[in-house]
Design brief:
Layout (H helix, E strand, L loop, with lengths): L11 H19 L9 H8 L4 H17 L6 H5 L18 H11 L4 H7 L3 H16 L1
Length: 139
C-alpha cells in the first residue's frame, strides 16, 4: 500500500492530496458518497484506520530506529550525519531534507536526536514509544 513511505518527504499539499485519495477509497469501500455528508473522522472510525499522516510518521520513526541501530560504517547511518559542503543554494527558504523531517517527528515525541539514538538501541522499547506517539495523535 505505502511502499517506501518511510523515505517520503511530502509537502503539506501532497499530504492533503494523499489523505483525500485515501478517504475517497475508504468511502468507496463503505458505499458512501460525498452527498451523504459523512465526516472523514467517522469514515476512519468505521474502517478502523488512522490518518495517513500518522501512519507515515510511524513508519518513518520505525525506520529511524532501524538506521540508528546500524553499524556506523553503513551508508544509511552515515547519511544521518551528512552535510553538503560547497553547495550554493538558491535564495529563499531551504528545502526540507530527511533529517529535518525526522527531527520534527522527534520533537513531536519530545525527544532530542541524542535521546533517540540512545532509546533506539532497545528495539522493543523504541517500537512501543513510536506506537504510543502515533496513537496519541490519532486520539
Amino acid at each position: 500500500m505505502l511502499y517506501g513511505a518511510e523515505t517520503w518527504l511530502l509537502s503539506v499539499t501532497q499530504m492533503k492530496r494523499l489523505e483525500a485519495a485515501h478517504h475517497k477509497f475508504q468511502r468507496r469501500l463503505l458505499g458512501i458518497t460525498w452527498r451523504d455528508k459523512v465526516r472523514n473522522e467517522d469514515i476512519r472510525k468505521k474502517t478502523g484506520s488512522r490518518k495517513l499522516e500518522d501512519i507515515i510518521r510511524e513508519r518513518r520513526l520505525r525506520w529511524l530506529g532501524h538506521v540508528l541501530r546500524m553499524d556506523s560504517s553503513r551508508t544509511a547511518r552515515q547519511a544521518t550525519h551528512c552535510e553538503l559542503r560547497g553547495y550554493k543554494r538558491k535564495p529563499g527558504r531551504p528545502r526540507k531534507n530527511g533529517v529535518d523531517v525526522i527531527k520534527r517527528d522527534l520533537r513531536q515525541m519530545d525527544l532530542t536526536w541524542a535521546e533517540a539514538e540512545e532509546l533506539a538501541n532497545d528495539k522493543a522499547g523504541w517500537r512501543r514509544r513510536v506506537a504510543q506517539c502515533s496513537h496519541l495523535d490519532a486520539g
